[in-house]
Amino acid sequence: MLHTVYNILWRDHLPNKTVYGSLPSVSSVVKRYRLALAGHVSRHEEPAGKLFLWLSETKCCVGRPCVIIKTLVEKKDTGLSGLELLAARKQHESWYKNIVNVSPSAEG
Fold first, then answer.
1. DSSP string, 47-62
2. Is residue 73 part of a domain?
3. Is the overall model pTM greater than 0.85, yes or no?
């Protein structure tokens, strides 16, 4: 989209680093919002907060990865699991300071 906004043609052969500059990658922005949502939901006593750590017993479709927000936050985003993750999310200031608001890199 930035190529279109800046009126850069495909035949100009500008590298993406030149076009995008220091903008964070889309995946790092999505990760930041996913972690913010996880922290927000888990601090409340509503059913959504309790369901966050729940794992379904049902199998995923053949050929499809079983992706749920719990596994994304545990394995891909933080490296914390189970009770460690729950304890970290309960501490609002440190969750946002150390995990959510970590500066995303331009590479992702």
1. HHHHHTT----SPPPT
2. yes
3. no
pLDDT, tens only, 37-89: 877 777 777 777 667 666 666 666 677 777 777 777 877 788 777 777 777 77
Structural domains of the chain, count? 1
Show Cβ contacts of residue 85 under 8 Å, excluding neighbours closer than 6 positions. 53, 73, 74, 78
Q: Considering the domain boundaries, does residue 98 fall inside one? A: yes
Domain boundaries, position 101: 24-51+62-108
8: its two tokens: 């850069």
Distance CA 65, CA 1 (A): 29
Q: Supply φ then ψ for residue 75, to 5 degrees.
A: -90, -40
Determine the Cα angle at 79 with ends 74 and 82, to 5°: 50
- Does residue 106 carry a pLDDT above 50? no
What is the rounded radius of gyration, in angstroms, for the C-alpha atoms of the chain?
18
In a domain, residue 3? The reply is no
**Of the candidates 89, 87, 75, which has an alpha carbon nearest to the alpha carbon of residue 36?**
89
